[in-house]
Input
Amino acid sequence: MAAPAQLTRQKQDVTAARLDALGPVPASGWSSAARSSALDRVVQQGLPHARDEYWKFTRPGGLTDAMAAPAALFRVEDTPIFDRIDRVRLVFVDGVFDAAASDDPELAGVRIDRLSQVAGADIHWAQGLYGVLEARGQSPVARPLAALNTAHATEGVLIHVTGKAQKPVSLVYERSSETADAILHHVIRIDAGAELTLLENGPAAARLNKVMEVDIADGAAFHHVRAQGRDHERQAATHIFARLGRESVFKSFTLTANGRLTRNECVIELTGDDAVAHVAGACVGDGDFLHDDTVFITHDAVNCESRQVFKKVLRNGATGVFQGKILVKKDAQKTDGYQISQSLLLDGDSQFLAKPELEIYADDVACSHGSTSGAIDEDALFYLRSRGVPEGTATDLLTLAFLAEAVQEIEDEALATEIVDRLEGWLERRRT
Amino acid sequence: MLKIENLQVKLEDEDKQILKGLDLEVEAGKVHAIMGPNGSGKSTLSYVLSGKGGYEVTGGSATLDGEDLLELEAEERAAAGLFLAFQYPVEIPGVGNMTFLRTALNAQRKARGEEEMSATDFLKFVREKAKALQIDAEMLKRPVNVGFSGGEKKRNEILQMAVLQPRMCILDETDSGLDVDAMKLVSDGVNALRDAGRGFLVITHYQRLLDHIKPDVVHIMADGRIVKTGGPELALEVETNGYADILAEAK
Ligand SMILES: Nc1ncnc2c1ncn2[C@@H]1O[C@H](COP(=O)(O)OP(=O)(O)OP(=O)(O)O)[C@@H](O)[C@H]1O
Ligand SMILES: [Mg+2]
Output
């Protein structure tokens, strides 16, 4: 394959090796054009390299290697998250749909297809979106892993929402193989005034590359709550590309506990006036753990609000990364942008690397950003202990309090409770 | 009940002696007051007794009913019945006041081998105590001390005391920042807890609090020591004449 001359030799080699390992782009009817242009993007851009500015905090090696590094399976005893939530479950094992374990995808106002199921069709409603939002999100920063995903995805869901969904659609990602290398690509289209809550949970694969494109029409709402799997050795690169219409709402929350390497990118375009986009994340990492939240929000309409709230608790040498940017275009007046990224370092070995950025071309805007890194507040700890709360419990209480601002971004109380329960479990296991 | 003998304390990472041989004994059922100039070491004494880090005890002892306090962790001292109402109550964003109170009470009960209180019983119990201090439901829900006014923070300290029902209560300038009515509420709260088994050590700069909480004994502290001990009249003397005469006399 001819690679562009400006790529370094190393980059060309890594990209070629990965593409070779994947083989030819799957035969794919309506998505063929999107896939082949995505493949061109991959070749043009080359896969990420440690020397890329956008990857300076996170070594992409594990995500770009030709083959996935094996990851031991992790047996979890407790009841799966979201078990108490009434939802339509679709189960994927190592990235392969498991019909027997899944519910019938019947939900009023919601049409659900699977990528593999409709691959042979010549036309499909997702054609105007598949790889389209991803391609829009390639500038000003290249996201080659997402382009690779568009080209090579083997499975995913295509969800078209025409009404207010009565219960959440829940994607459950299980694992059974130590080496599975899954590429999932979801497309979600929410028509004007319609609403959907999407849940995701589970480790998915030894290595996961996942893209979700979400197109939210005027007055529509999308709520997303995700809990990434607890498997210690799994690796994941995920991208969300969202485009928001007038008065629409996008709210996404992610909980991450464990995982050797996780890069979650979220690329949001506010294209209609009065739209609202919130992205939040709570992550707890212990030991061999790197978690990277990379967010890019573009305000391209009047009177829109965006919020980024990211909290990381790190211990035993864990690393947290945050790269967040708010870009306010010239005509995006009355933009309200808020961004906060904070880490709680439970010991001196752990580290938090943050790069918050604002780029503003409109004059009537209110944007704020802040990033902090610190240890447990000794005064608060003593105050609690002086009331009889043992040190361990007091530390946990303060840790949960630290994460609270992110968890509060989840509107649905039952879903927030699910997340808090997980966090409490994590803290408890680390105390015994 | 609380017995402090020749207590000497310096800062842990500075060569600065703050308590220089302090003797004090508070008997069960009694209210002792400590007055003294700024910087004499009153808050340091209260922190050292309740187990705050950053200090080094270089001599002397402090016991509660014969048990060596200085050997215990802060939470163990609390479970043993010691309570400090802070001069500057700490704000804890993200932790609800109610959760805080319940966690504290149940932790102490557990440490003493008692049953934990159920959520419903607890709610009733706290509401009743809060009502007496005119702390409304809203304040109970809010994060601990966050956005509370100075006076509200002090009332919240007394609420904690009322809920935890400690045997030995140390109040560090609980009156500062209180308006006249709040002073009355807080004093009523303290007086309601006065009984034969409970001791109080009330640190204050002003006689006014002692009009409401009548002390049995008044101590004057200066430069890390108790320099004079007397009855309630000692507080009145300070109020009218200041510390000059007392300090001169002590030397
Ligand atoms: N952590 C510390 N670091 C430095 N100096 C300290 C520290 N703690 C106490 N000190 C000093 O020790 C002395 C006693 O302080 P302390 O707060 O105990 O006084 P106090 O009697 O409570 O005063 P006030 O009436 O103003 O509340 C002061 O000179 C104070 O500056
Ligand atoms: Mg003081």
About this structure: The interface with chain B takes residues 377-380, 382-391, 393-394, 397-398, 400-405 of chain A (CB under 8 Å).
